[in-house]
């Protein structure tokens, strides 16, 4: 294979945010020679023969049969017939983007990984976000865990951090994964439901599997309905191992912290989006990157001594446990910016093959039994999905650093290996390619020499035995609003379970052990009798972890927020202009919407072209709504059912709404009570200031009770 430029050379990497994008992309393209652009090129067969007619197949006579001889038509249709590959068995639905990782606090004290060792060093990354349950064509906004998989193309090889947006998992041992996945997937007899866990087999399994209690609580929380990929935290989940140049090792948990804060949809909104814009998350990611509003995360580490593996009151090897940040603070070591959309979904996002076993010197594994099983699964699944063992040669998967070995042949081999010896040791080719001594002197990978002892057994360590304490911690750390959403989610999901004994088991055997009040509230909604003597007593002094509540993780700015500006004939041109300017200056996206997609005349008599209509860009696709004043604003909107629904729905979903000038009369008309986010005003500047403050809060939670009476 030809030598590629070293990806660790920062000058080659996706440039700084301020660099001209096309310039930095051109540099990357030098690295990625496999990208193809057919502009200006002739249409050819795969063998290069130029095609004269791509409209008609070869026929025996104008009205006669098509001839077998038509190699052009046959090649084209054969290729088409084979276009699909098996979708991922889990995480089938996803979207990806390119970007870079930059070190802010080098950690050579902890790891000899070169890509983490120097401040300012940049490494290209490809990230794929996904849902777990649904197939490739399913909706983005369903209640589910999100995959958060990052491939770092480091100078020492690829490192894949294949994580989720929740810090724990449903099971403790890989051998249970097929059971769990079979239970959550659509039911086998009718393949229903798509993209949902609200069905009997899922709740049957989890109610019989207490180790899932903590993670199920996370999936019933707002974390399972993120507003955007850019607003999700990411977690490596397992304890991994870092090894430094002296061979010293520490256990580590990886964290991604979003600059955009952690924000979620509300459930009604998530459900409606699944129908009106099933691509909501992938569209948001794509559009933000095209607009230059690059999603960004900090990479943080929680570092623990191996001797402390059991000293926190749980086992660091147990993937159903998190390490509270109040116990071990997160050390931020770098940042990741996504700044380039893929050129081709299939070639990049669909063919990306992540593997928890893709590591570089300085990063190693722990004995977490879930992690250990994953080390087998990911290569195995790619063999089927990508059709053989050469998937590392597919452009999106190949390292940007050189790679050479004696592996040969197999389907779809891309490399043409020169030389006579494909074994080692050899004397015919000078014994090349050769081993490298271990890091740090040589840089060869050597596994941490962890001492092992014990009998060959199939047992679960007793230190994995407490399934409820951390679920309780999570529940108690939630704000009242978040707790209410969790109660609503359990009640919704369990009410879809047909078998009443499964509902009851989940409430009595699981929820009651997390918190009696949680159990009581869900039981009440389901009409289940909970004998208070059967619910365990809880310790009232149970601890809380403020870092777990997303109410404490708001961004403090409005970057990337989408604001609908509802235009009406005669709307005030100066207000619309100022609003657009101020929102864009703050990094928000202003969407001009009108009763139809046609241009209308503003207060100056000038045509104003909307970006879309009230119907084409429904309120569920935006974060807030502003109605500028204008001569006909009241008349136009009060007679327009779609517009009224727009405002009512935005109000119901607790979004900031501003009604300026004459538009303010709509509030009384629609029964929208003024509050911290339902704002009316005659004077634009103060109204805008209040609006922006409300937008920073993301939702007006205090409105939630009142909004329940809104039918939209
Ligand atoms: Fe995965 N997982 N997983 N998983 N996983 C896959 O690999 C598996 C687990 C995660 O965007 C598969 O290429 C087993 C935990 C993500 O392409 C498969 C177990 C976490 C993605 C697989 C787990 C994950 C996958 C399916 C239990 C969070 C999508 C397609 C031992 C830390 C990656 C594929 C992408 C994908 C197996 C548990 C994250 C079948 C056996 C825990 C983000 O190999």
Automatic annotation (TrEMBL):
<dbReference type="InterPro" id="IPR024712">
    <property type="entry name" value="Catalase_clade2"/>
</dbReference>
<feature type="compositionally biased region" description="Basic and acidic residues">
    <location>
        <begin position="29"/>
        <end position="38"/>
    </location>
</feature>
<dbReference type="InterPro" id="IPR011614">
    <property type="entry name" value="Catalase_core"/>
</dbReference>
<dbReference type="Pfam" id="PF06628">
    <property type="entry name" value="Catalase-rel"/>
</dbReference>
<dbReference type="InterPro" id="IPR010582">
    <property type="entry name" value="Catalase_immune_responsive"/>
</dbReference>
<dbReference type="Pfam" id="PF18011">
    <property type="entry name" value="Catalase_C"/>
</dbReference>
<keyword id="KW-0376">Hydrogen peroxide</keyword>
<dbReference type="InterPro" id="IPR024708">
    <property type="entry name" value="Catalase_AS"/>
</dbReference>
<keyword id="KW-0349">Heme</keyword>
<protein>
    <recommendedName>
        <fullName>Catalase</fullName>
        <ecNumber>1.11.1.6</ecNumber>
    </recommendedName>
</protein>
<comment type="similarity">
    <text>Belongs to the catalase family. HPII subfamily.</text>
</comment>
<dbReference type="InterPro" id="IPR029062">
    <property type="entry name" value="Class_I_gatase-like"/>
</dbReference>
<dbReference type="InterPro" id="IPR041399">
    <property type="entry name" value="Catalase_large_C"/>
</dbReference>
<feature type="compositionally biased region" description="Polar residues">
    <location>
        <begin position="1"/>
        <end position="27"/>
    </location>
</feature>
<keyword id="KW-0408">Iron</keyword>
<dbReference type="Pfam" id="PF00199">
    <property type="entry name" value="Catalase"/>
</dbReference>
<keyword id="KW-0479">Metal-binding</keyword>
<keyword id="KW-0575">Peroxidase</keyword>
<feature type="region of interest" description="Disordered">
    <location>
        <begin position="1"/>
        <end position="64"/>
    </location>
</feature>
<comment type="function">
    <text>Decomposes hydrogen peroxide into water and oxygen; serves to protect cells from the toxic effects of hydrogen peroxide.</text>
</comment>
<feature type="compositionally biased region" description="Polar residues">
    <location>
        <begin position="44"/>
        <end position="58"/>
    </location>
</feature>
<feature type="region of interest" description="Disordered">
    <location>
        <begin position="414"/>
        <end position="448"/>
    </location>
</feature>
<dbReference type="InterPro" id="IPR043156">
    <property type="entry name" value="Catalase_clade2_helical"/>
</dbReference>
<dbReference type="InterPro" id="IPR018028">
    <property type="entry name" value="Catalase"/>
</dbReference>
<keyword id="KW-0560">Oxidoreductase</keyword>
<dbReference type="InterPro" id="IPR020835">
    <property type="entry name" value="Catalase_sf"/>
</dbReference>
<dbReference type="InterPro" id="IPR002226">
    <property type="entry name" value="Catalase_haem_BS"/>
</dbReference>
<feature type="domain" description="Catalase core">
    <location>
        <begin position="44"/>
        <end position="432"/>
    </location>
</feature>
């Amino acid at each position: 294979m030809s030598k590629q430029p070293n990806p660790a050379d920062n000058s080659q990497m996706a440039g700084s945010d301020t660099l001209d994008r096309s310039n930095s992309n051109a540099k990357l393209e030098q690295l990625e020679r496999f990208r193809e652009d057919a502009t200006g090129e002739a249409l050819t067969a795969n063998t290069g023969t130029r095609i004269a007619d791509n409209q008609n197949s070869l026929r025996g006579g104008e009205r006669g049969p098509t001839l077998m001889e038509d190699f052009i038509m046959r090649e084209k249709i054969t290729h088409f017939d084979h276009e699909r590959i098996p979708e991922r068995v889990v995480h089938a639905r996803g979207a990806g983007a390119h970007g870079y990782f930059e070190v802010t606090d080098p950690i050579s004290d902890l790891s000899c990984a070169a890509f983490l060792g120097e401040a300012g060093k940049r490494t290209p990354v490809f990230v794929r976000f996904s849902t777990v349950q649904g197939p490739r064509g399913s909706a983005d906004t369903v209640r589910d865990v999100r995959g958060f998989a990052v491939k770092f193309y480091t100078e020492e090889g690829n490192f894949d951090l294949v994580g989720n947006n929740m810090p724990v998992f449903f099971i403790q041992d890989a051998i249970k994964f097929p059971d769990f996945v079979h239970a959550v997937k659509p039911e086998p007899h009718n393949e229903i439901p798509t993209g949902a866990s609200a069905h009997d087999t899922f709740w049957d399994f989890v109610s019989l599997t207490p180790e899932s209690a903590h993670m199920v609580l996370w999936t019933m929380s707002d974390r399972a309905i993120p507003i955007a990929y850019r607003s999700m935290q990411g977690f490596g989940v397992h304890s991994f191992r870092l090894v430094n140049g002296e061979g010293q090792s520490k256990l580590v948990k990886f964290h991604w912290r979003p600059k955009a804060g952690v924000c979620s949809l509300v459930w009604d909104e998530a459900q409606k989006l699944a129908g009106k814009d099933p691509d909501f998350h992938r569209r948001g990611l794509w559009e933000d990157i095209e607009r230059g509003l690059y999603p960004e995360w900090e990479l943080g580490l929680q570092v623990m001594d191996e001797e402390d593996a059991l000293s926190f009151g749980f086992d660091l090897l147990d993937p159903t446990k998190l390490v509270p940040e109040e116990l071990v603070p997160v050390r931020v070591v770098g940042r990741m910016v996504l700044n380039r959309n893929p050129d081709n979904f299939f070639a990049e996002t669909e063919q990306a093959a992540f593997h928890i076993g893709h590591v570089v010197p300085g990063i190693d594994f722990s004995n977490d039994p879930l992690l250990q099983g994953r080390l087998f699964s990911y290569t195995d699944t790619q063999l089927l999905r990508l059709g053989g063992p050469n998937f590392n040669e597919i452009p999106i998967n190949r390292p940007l650093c050189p790679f050479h070995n004696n592996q040969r042949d197999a389907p779809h081999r891309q490399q043409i290996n020169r030389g006579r010896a494909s074994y080692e040791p050899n004397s015919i080719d000078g014994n090349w390619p050769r081993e490298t001594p271990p890091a740090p002197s040589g840089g060869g990978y050597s596994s941490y020499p962890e001492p092992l002892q014990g009998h060959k057994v199939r047992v679960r360590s007793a230190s994995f035995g407490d399934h409820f304490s951390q679920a309780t911690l999570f529940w108690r750390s939630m704000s009242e609003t978040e707790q209410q959403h969790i109660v609503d989610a359990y009640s919704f999901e369990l009410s879809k379970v047909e078998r009443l004994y499964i509902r009851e088991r989940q409430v009595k055997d699981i929820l009651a052990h997390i918190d009696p009040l949680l159990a009581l509230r869900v039981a009440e909604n389901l009409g289940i009798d909970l004998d208070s003597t059967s619910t365990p007593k809880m310790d009232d002094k149970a601890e809380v972890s403020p870092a777990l509540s997303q109410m404490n993780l708001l961004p403090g700015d409005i970057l990337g927020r989408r604001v609908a500006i509802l235009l009406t004939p005669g709307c005030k041109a100066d207000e619309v202009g100022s609003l657009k300017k101020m929102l864009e200056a703050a990094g928000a996206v202003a969407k001009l919407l009108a009763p139809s997609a046609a241009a209308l005349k503003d207060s100056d008599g000038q045509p104003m072209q909307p970006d879309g209509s009230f119907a084409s860009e429904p309120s569920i696709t935006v974060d807030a709504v502003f109605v500028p004043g204008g001569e006909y604003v009241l008349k136009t909107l009060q007679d327009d059912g779609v517009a009224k629904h727009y405002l009512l729905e935005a109000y119901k979903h607790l979004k900031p709404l501003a009604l300026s000038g004459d538009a303010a009369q709509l509030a009384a008309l629609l029964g929208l009570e003024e509050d911290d986010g339902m704002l009316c005003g005659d004077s634009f500047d103060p109204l805008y200031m209040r609006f922006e403050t409300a937008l920073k809060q993301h939702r007006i939670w205090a409105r939630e009770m009142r909004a329940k009476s809104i039918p939209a």
